[in-house]
Amino acid sequence: MDSTLINEEVIDELARSIGITAAVSAITARAMNGEIEFAESLRQRLALLKGVKANVWDDLRSSITVAAGAKELVKALHNQGVVTAVVSGGFAPMAEWLKGHLGLDHAFANHVVSPATAMFPYNHLSGDLDPEHPVVVPEFKRDVLETLASELGISLSETMAVGDGSNDLLMLGAAGLGIAWRAKKKVQRLAPQRLNGATMTDLLFLLDLSFKLSQ
């Protein structure tokens, strides 16, 4: 989702809202380049966001911009009966919003505990992930791809996955067509395929579906 279907990194936007951009962005960069484990980086960044009001998601939507060609890509895929999903190391409120905005079929992302406490007597980000939901680590992304393929009765060779970070590599490797989209250098080097286009509709050329843009 982040820096793929949307242009921003949501957790960095959260950090900007409370003035800790540099600290959070530094951890984000290390995680996306594979220098630290994604789950650990997520916990470190969330801890810095403790106390942010839970309604911050509503405010963020006005600052999030959808990537060029994302809507057209999803429409063209749906016209061909393709099932689409966002599997994000970001956060569920934004992934669910994007699912509705783009018309995706599924959304998977991290869930954050948002209680009211004596210290913060309003619903806020606790700094902790919800233990009732799985953390979206690289293995989870790959497993979602495999599960959806199985439920649809198709082989992995009939699937496509797109991502830009190190936490996408297992998923990209499992897909029939795994594409590093405008990705970090390490990911471009290790992914099965790479594409650095100006619009996400460029992905349709790899599927020989570019002609569907006019439909």
Main sheet: strands, sense, barrel: 3 strands, parallel
Uncertain segments of ≥5 residues (pLDDT<50)?
A: none
Q: Which geometry do the CA atoms define? A: globular
Strand content: 5-15%
Cα(first) to Cα(last) distance is 25 Å
Please give the share of residues in helix.
40-55%
Rg, Cα atoms, Å: 17 Å
Read across the widest sheet, the strand sequence of neighbours is 3-4-5
Could you state the order of secondary-structure elements as H and E? HHHHHEHEHEHEHEH
Classify the secondary structure makeup into a structural class.
Answer: alpha/beta
**Number of helical segments?**
10
Oligomer designation: single chain
Topology, number of strands: 5
Mean pLDDT: 91
Molecular structure report:
With 215 residues, the chain is of the alpha/beta class. The chain contains 10 helices and 5 strands, in the order αααααβαβαβαβαβα. It has a 3-stranded parallel sheet with strand order 3-4-5. A two-stranded parallel ribbon has the order 1-2. Helix 1 runs antiparallel to helix 2 and helix 2 packs antiparallel against helix 3. The radius of gyration is 17 Å and the shape is globular. The two termini are 25 Å apart. The model has no long low-confidence stretch (mean pLDDT 91).
Structure summarized in a few sentences:
The chain is an alpha/beta fold. The chain contains ten helices and five strands; from the N terminus they run H-H-H-H-H-E-H-E-H-E-H-E-H-E-H.
Question: Which terms would index this structure?
Answer:
globular; 215 residues; alpha/beta; two-stranded parallel ribbon
